[in-house]
Amino acid sequence: MPSFTLGFRQVGKVELRRDKRFHGPTFTVEVGDYRYETVNWSLGGLLLRNYEGRFFSNMPLLVHISVKNPARDRKTLETLTIEARVVRNDQHKRLLALKFVKLTPQMIKFLERAYITHKRQIG
Q1: CB–CB of 11/50 below 8 Å?
Q2: CB neighbour list of residue 120: distance below 8 Å, 6 or more residues apart
Q3: CB 45 within 8 A of CB 84
Q4: How far is CA 118 from CA 23, 51, 80, 81, 111, in A?
Q5: How far is the CA of 122 from the CAs of 24, 33, 101, 110, 115, in angstroms?
Q6: Eight-state DSSP code of residue 24
Q7: pTM of the model
Q8: Helical H segments across 16-104, by residue range
Q9: Rounded alpha-carbon distances, angstroms, from residue 75 to 23, 49, 72, 108
Q10: What is the pLDDT of residues 86-121, one digit of tens each?
């Protein structure tokens, strides 16, 4: 299956990231007792807003990521548990950047399904 984000280059300037970042759909992410929403995401990881945790760089985390699936029911959440590592935490901007430890076929299907559903919703 071809990747929908690998080898991304931004028009006009080279994007140094390996994966294209997406702003939608917005995922709800739970890490321990903390709940965040994504600013953006890619096949490489997640950028989370409203960070108030106490996570430090390279810290391993177990993350529960969920998204509403309106195709089934507006209240239905699809949830996946993944392993990630903290890349950056910014207390001032209240951002937390996470990198996926391993991109599994299950994760790719989850993200792809959420992306396709989101694209159908916005036209």
Answers
A1: no
A2: none
A3: yes
A4: 10, 25, 17, 20, 10
A5: 10, 32, 31, 19, 11
A6: -
A7: 0.81
A8: none
A9: 21, 23, 9, 23
A10: 999 999 999 999 999 999 999 999 999 999 988 887
